[in-house]
Amino acid sequence: MDNINVRFAPSPTGYLHVGGLRTALYNYLFAKQNNGNLILRIEDTDQSRKVDGAISNLVESLNKCGIIFDKGPERYDKNDLFIQSNRLHLYHDAVELLLDDGYAYICLDDNFQKYRDKIFSKEELVNKEYHVRLKIPNNELSFDDDIRGKINFDLSLINDPVILKTDGFPTYHLANVVDDHDMHISHVIRGEEWLPSTPIHVLLYQYFNWELPVFIHLPLLLNPDKSKLSKRQGHVAVDDFLNDGYLADALINFIALLGWNPKTNDELFSIDQLINQFNINNVQKAGAVFDIDKLNWMNAQYLKNTEVSQLLPIAKKIFINNNFIIKDESDLVSIVEFGKSRCNTIKDIVQLANPFFQDLTYNPDYLSLLADSKSKAIYLILIEKIEGLQLVSESDIKLIISDIGNKMNLKGKDLFFPIRLAIWGDVHGPDIGLIIKILEKEKSLERLHRALNYGK
Ligand code: GLU
Question: What is the pLDDT of residues 84-94, one digit of tens each?
Fold first, then answer.
């Protein structure tokens, strides 16, 4: 295929939705596979819905996920031609063409039927507010969608849509088609929710006598109950997932499979593997269920397989956002090392590390172990030994505990469970030396005293 140009065309109305990420990703993969260009175009013709900072947020979220554009707004300012509000002259020219050819008409109010065949002179419009509508004929229109095949649409079902508003801004339909043509878009890959708008777009292409792009409408994203994916059932903003410690690579891998599958049992794909294997022609028609359990499973695989050093910058941020301050970076390394094979997300690692930062609660199943006289004897010796240390190090603690084991003839569970229960609240958890080192002397002693006095 020659000259493949695709685009992602979000409206800057807030955050990047996972559905938007999927659209951007499929466009990106398709462009990469075909040596094409991926264009980012900001569709801000509805000025009332514009949100400050939304463009930079969108670009940042996409970049974090590895989606880089070949062309798009760089400065986000009033001269940037990838932002529709800076391209009004193009839409005005297009409206003139349609008016001249009788495909559009000027209306002075919403009672549009009465203006359908009226032609205003320039003088009649001076100081008047008006909008422009597209004339929709009463016939059938058909077009092809690469995934859905031929689509027939009865145009008599729709009213003449507004294409230019009284504020001088075009509506989505006009701006979208004018830009797709101007930017030489070869394939329009977008969500299914835009399918009902496509007949209007096709009609515009016919009126302008422009070549149609290939249309590809991606299946809806659904909640597990098959309703349209909504905030009510969990996160939908890409940033919320990233802030919870889902890894961008895992999120991309998961999102890629919402509507496409490789027809093998493989489920884990890096973005490069996706570029190799993704096939837009295999995208399904049926809605794709956003299964958070699957995302959790997938993220766990990525966590396990990612080096701690790579996780550290993200982990640091997430710990701080959750008000967990770890003084010593090597302690964070140990916590992440411990948690990454046990947790689904980095936020889960924060949860797992909770006992470091919060008041201890004991696992109720082991309260009798706390009250046991052997446990008390261990606590006594441990307290005495730790009190004798200036600073606690992991190796000191190891030595002390193995001494206690020898003296009391205890090993394994019998030795470790009571100690971990006292300082961690549970019999399973991170290495005892690490716990005591991170807690430091005073807090460790406090916990050992509390255990010693438990039940007394
Ligand atoms: N501005 C539309 C959106 O927000 C673009 C739809 C399209 O890709 O044509 O998704």
Answer: 999 999 999 99
